[in-house]
Amino acid sequence: MIALMDAAISELQKPFLDDDQIRSSRAIMGLDTQLVDDGTYFVVEHAGVLAGCGGWSRRTTMYGGDQSPGRNAALLDPATDAARIRAMYTHPDFVRRGVGRLILSLCERAAKAEGFRRADLAATMAGEPLYRACGYQPAEKFVDDRGGAPVPILMMSKTL
């Protein structure tokens, strides 16, 4: 999965970020093994090749990998909080083939089944068009510079 994530960050962000921002993205993004441990992470394969991965969380952390500072594993309350859509990556060879939509729909259904009525996510500029097409509305744009260079992030939300 790490190679898939690296390929997605390196290739799919090129139209939106410079080299320093891509390096910074690697520092603030990536796999959060808490999602795997919680059983809320999905992997899509095509003919034995890893095409994409992504998950959702019932925990407070909004985005970032195991190495990211500021993580918070506190559980969310489905009655008042939004589930988190997290760590969505599609291999560059599989973009625009329904992989991201499939993973997103699996996440939304699972979160809804646990009582969540809303989902929030932190979109990269490369991911924003997919999320908009799937009904997510923009909320707040900010810059995360914890990796050394400013990376634009757009908070988005959807009623499930």
What does this structure look like?
The structure is a single chain. This protein is α+β, with helices and mostly antiparallel strands and 160 residues long. It has one domain: Aminopeptidase, CATH 3.40.630. Helix content is 30%, strand content 29%. The protein contains 5 helices and 6 strands, in the order αααβββαβαββ. The chain has helices at 2-12, 19-28, 33-38, 99-113, 128-133; strands at 41-46, 49-57, 83-90, 118-123, 137-144, 151-159. It has a 6-stranded mixed sheet with strand order 1-2-3-4-6-5. Strand 3 (83-90), helix 4 and strand 4 (118-123) form a beta-alpha-beta unit. The radius of gyration is 14 Å and the shape is globular. 36% of the residues are buried. The model has no long low-confidence stretch (mean pLDDT 96).
